[in-house]
Design goal:
By secondary structure, the protein is an all-alpha fold. The protein is built from eleven helices and no strands. Helix 2 packs across helix 3 and helix 8 runs antiparallel to helix 11.
Length: about 280
């Protein structure tokens, strides 16, 4: 086959795959999250089965399921509770943001009167904003429902997956090779989740103590967010530092306190991520 024809086939195939992935991005994302949950539950069930005495596999699986889903429910509760507390202090945040905007106008010598948060909020369309919020909440609820549906199908599917692979690959060397590859993929993903969970717990605990010591309000809430951000390689650590620094910038009047929060959070991310992990 001529190289130009081969190159054209590769370009068309790549474009087709990219288009399919783009069009199916929502269900694929939901399925990927369900798969991660299933791996976490299955891995935890294996730990309970092997390390907790007198716990059979059939009992370890529902225990792991309850523990993981309870952790997810706890996360939702912490987020809702802390968001409610932050909304009660919205007036204080508004005053601080107005001061920061006025200070920025003065430092950069921007002509004109600095806008206030009240003026900026007045420019928003309340109907459109409420519609966007409602649409976002509906999308989140829909994603959760589909993730739970995929998760419910993954457990019975995994139980019969061995027989399906026997039909696909037969029972010879090809079947053994396929089983070995799939087992290594599952073990490596479960190992990554386990190691990352332990590392995230260490970073979250140290960060929570640091934020609590520095007096940042809602330290538990921001620590919870940092715990889950740490599962995102590289970007998650950067997002954790940037997020807490911006929050400190709104909460604290002194730049020294803001710098202490940024230094404290980034120090634990750097030390644990680059040495322990």
């Amino acid at each position: 086959m001529d190289w130009s024809v081969r190159a054209a086939i590769w370009i068309i195939a790549t474009a087709t795959i990219a288009a399919v992935l783009y069009l199916l991005r929502d269900p694929l994302t939901q399925f990927a999250l369900a798969l991660i949950l299933w791996l976490a539950i299955d891995g935890l069930a294996q730990v309970i089965d092997h390390r907790v005495p007198f716990t059979p596999r059939w009992l370890a699986l529902p225990i792991a399921l309850v523990l993981v889903l309870s952790l997810a429910a706890l996360l939702v509760w912490v987020i809702v509770t802390n968001l409610s507390a932050m909304m009660t202090n919205f007036r204080g945040y508004e005053i601080r943001l107005n001061e920061m905007i006025a200070q920025a106008y003065g430092n950069f010598r921007i002509p004109g009167d600095p806008p206030t948060m009240e003026n900026l909020m007045a420019r928003l369309d309340p109907t459109r904003t409420a519609g966007d919020v409602a649409s976002g909440l509906r999308n989140v609820a829909s994603d959760i429902v589909f993730i739970l549906i995929y998760l419910a199908f993954l457990f019975p599917a995994s139980a019969v997956m061995g027989k399906k692979f026997d039909y696909i690959f037969g029972r010879g060397g090809m079947r053994a090779a396929a089983r070995d590859v799939i087992n290594r993929i599952q073990q490596s993903m479960e190992r990554y989740l386990w190691v990352q969970t332990v590392i995230s717990l260490i970073i979250t605990t140290l960060t929570y103590v640091t934020l609590l010591t520095l007096g940042l309000p809602n330290a538990l809430f921001w620590s919870f967010l940092i715990f889950f951000l740490n599962f995102i390689p590289t970007i998650g650590s950067v997002a954790a530092v940037v997020l807490t620094t911006l929050v400190a910038l709104v909460q604290f009047p002194s730049l020294a306190q803001v710098g202490a929060v940024a230094l404290g959070v980034s120090a634990w991310q750097f030390i644990i991520g680059n040495f322990l992990q």
